[in-house]
Every structure is written in C-alpha cells, then in structure tokens.
Amino acid sequence: MDGLNIVVLVKIVPKPDEVKMNPETNTLDRRDAESIINPPDKNAIETAVALKEIYGGKVTLMSMAPPFIDDFMRLMMAMGADDAIILSDRAFAMADTYPTTMVLAEGIKRLGDVDLVICGVESADGGTGNVPPGLAEWLNYSQATYVEDVDYSEGRFVVKRATTGGHEIISIPKPAVISIELGANSPRFPDFAKKRDLDTDYKVKIWDNKLLNLDPEIIGLSGSKTLVDGMIQGKLRERKHIRLEGSPEEIADKLLEILLD
Ligand SMILES: Cc1cc2nc3c(=O)[nH]c(=O)nc-3n(C[C@H](O)[C@H](O)[C@H](O)COP(=O)(O)OP(=O)(O)OC[C@H]3O[C@@H](n4cnc5c(N)ncnc54)[C@H](O)[C@@H]3O)c2cc1C
To answer: Rounded to the nearest whole angstrom, what is the distance from the C-alpha of residue 8 to the centroid of ligand 1?
Structure first.
C-alpha cells in the first residue's frame, strides 16, 4: 500500500458519572448510563487522519465490542477514517486486558502489513492503560505510551512523549503501537453529510471467532488472568452553584475571595 496503513482502536464507554457499582456481583451496572466514545480515542482518530492527510494511506477503526456500537463506528468514520471493524463474539465477552489484547492483536494481524496502531491513553471505564503495551507485546511491534505528537520519517515514527515534569522525543521503528494523551490535539467534528451517506451505503464489518479462530479456552472470561475481588464507590464531586451578585468589580472581588479560600 502507498502511504501509511493505520489502525485506530476505539472503545465505546459508559459516561463515567452515570455508572453504578453492584457490590454483590463486583460488576459495573452500565444499564442506565449513556454511551460515549472514549475521550482520548477521539484524539487517536485525529492523529491518524492528520497523518493520512500528510503521507496518504488508510485509516481503519477497530473495536472489540457488541455489534450495537456500529452507529458510533460510522460517526467516527465521518471524522475521516476509511473502514470500521467490530470484533464481536460471545466467546470474547467478560475478558480482562490479557485476552482483550490477544483478540485485538489477532484482528490487526488479519489486516496485512500495518504500519501504526493508535490507541487512546486509557479508557474511562476499565482505565488500566494496559491495552496499548499489551497489544505491542502480542504483535511484537515497537511501542510508545503517553504520546502527545507523532510524525513519520523513513520507516520510523518520531514521537513526543509526556514524562513526569517534561517531555522526551523518541524515534521508534515501524510497525508500532502508540497511545495518545487526552487533549493531545483538537479532534475534528464528524462530517455529518458523510455520516448520512455512511448510514445508507456502508456496513460496518463484524468479525467473529469463526473468522479469528481462537481457542475459546484462552479468550473471554476463561482466558482472563484477573478476578475483581471488591469494589468501592468513590464520592462524586458535587457542584456548588454559587451565584455572585453585585457590580462586575464586586463579583470579581468575591470570586477572588472564594478562589483564595
Ligand atoms: C474479570 C474481568 C472481567 C471483565 N469483563 C468485562 C466485560 O464483560 N465487558 C467489558 O467491557 N469489560 C470487561 N472488563 C474490563 C476489561 O478488562 C476492559 O474493558 C478491557 O480489557 C480494556 O481495558 P481497559 O478498559 O483498562 O483499557 P485501557 O488499556 O485503559 O485502554 C487504552 C486504550 O486501548 C484501546 N482499547 C481498550 N479496550 C478496547 C476494546 N475493547 N476495543 C478496542 N480498543 C480498546 C482504546 O484505544 C483505549 O483508549 C473485565 C475486566 C476483568 C478484570
């Protein structure tokens, strides 16, 4: 392929403040929560589409998820991606990050010569940050996490990584997996005319385990290495809704007083 063959991994997550915990089963109750695109995954899509605009190539979105997220996949395609695949099978369900990364790696291998896999830095629900490095291990790709910027030159990706108190610029060979920081760029809005066209003309691909052909014993719940042993609901931060009255100067003085407090 001319240009870069890029895969962006995307996850649809429940809105964090709408998820409840079930202390009896140690599971998250997502039933009443609105689903959203995992926020840094939008930064990952923006990074991929911007690279494609410079170097040419193709951007494929991939998610391991139930098939009902297909409308989200078309919405994300309307940001400039070319193809979308959902890896979906009952055998993949209830997985921790070990079988999740194994299944995602298997899907990526079926896309031929991939140059770059871009993930968000972490999910808003599981939030382990394990998926990008785990995936790089299964694929035997080079990797860089906490990436704020990336460029490509002569078979290598030059990435700017956030470190504690600063940054480092490193160069890694392709193929590579990187994870993009939340806020690394300004994700473009979806093109809604393109979304309408996709809704009528494009069918998101669903790949099941008949296609990936992984042993059911090593994926899903039976392949998971971790067990959730307990959960503690954190306290949600409440807004105070204080209305300041008076002249602009008086409001500014009161605001300063509150902030200093
Ligand atoms: C015992 C056990 C059972 C679990 N059962 C379930 C379950 O039934 N359903 C469930 O949703 N979760 C389940 N989980 C949570 C599951 O481990 C995570 O949803 C998943 O493995 C991803 O990990 P993470 O959310 O920490 O991703 P992170 O590593 O924090 O995510 C980083 C980035 O990786 C990419 N990414 C992460 N997950 C996916 C994905 N699925 N597809 C594509 N890209 C992805 C995204 O780009 C994301 O921004 C279970 C966990 C455990 C321990």
So the answer is: 15
Atom of ligand 1 nearest to the CA of 128: 26
The pTM assigned to this predicted structure is: 0.89
Nearest residue (by CA) to ligand 1, atom 48, is 120
**Would you say residue 46 lies in a domain?**
yes
Atom of ligand 1 nearest to the CA of 125: 25
Domains of the chain: total: 1
d(C-alpha 5, C-alpha 74), whole Å: 19
Instruction: State which ligand 1 atom lies nearest to the alpha carbon of 100.
Output: 21
Domain-embedded: residue 231 = no
Query: How far is residue 176's CA from residue 188's CA, in Å, rounded to a whole number?
Result: 24
Residue located nearest, by CA, to atom 51 of ligand 1: 96
Question: Residue 86 pairs with which residues in a beta bridge?
Answer: 63, 206
Q: Which residues contact 140 (CB under 8 A, 6 or more apart)?
A: none
Q: How far is the CA of 138 from the centre of ligand 1 (A)?
A: 16
Per-residue pLDDT of 98-152, as tens digits, reads: 999 999 999 999 999 999 999 999 999 888 999 999 999 999 999 999 999 999 9
Residue 66: which domain range? 4-226
SS3 (DSSP) at 45: helix
Please answer whether residues 96 and 218 qualify as being in contact, where contact means their C-beta atoms are separated by less than 8 angstroms: no
Give me the CATH number covering residue 47. 3.40.50.620
Residues in the chain: 261
CB of 96 within 8 A of CB of 224?
A: yes
Which of the listed residues 61, 131, 181, 229 should we mutate to test ligand 1's pocket, taking the one with most ligand atoms within 8 A of CB? 131
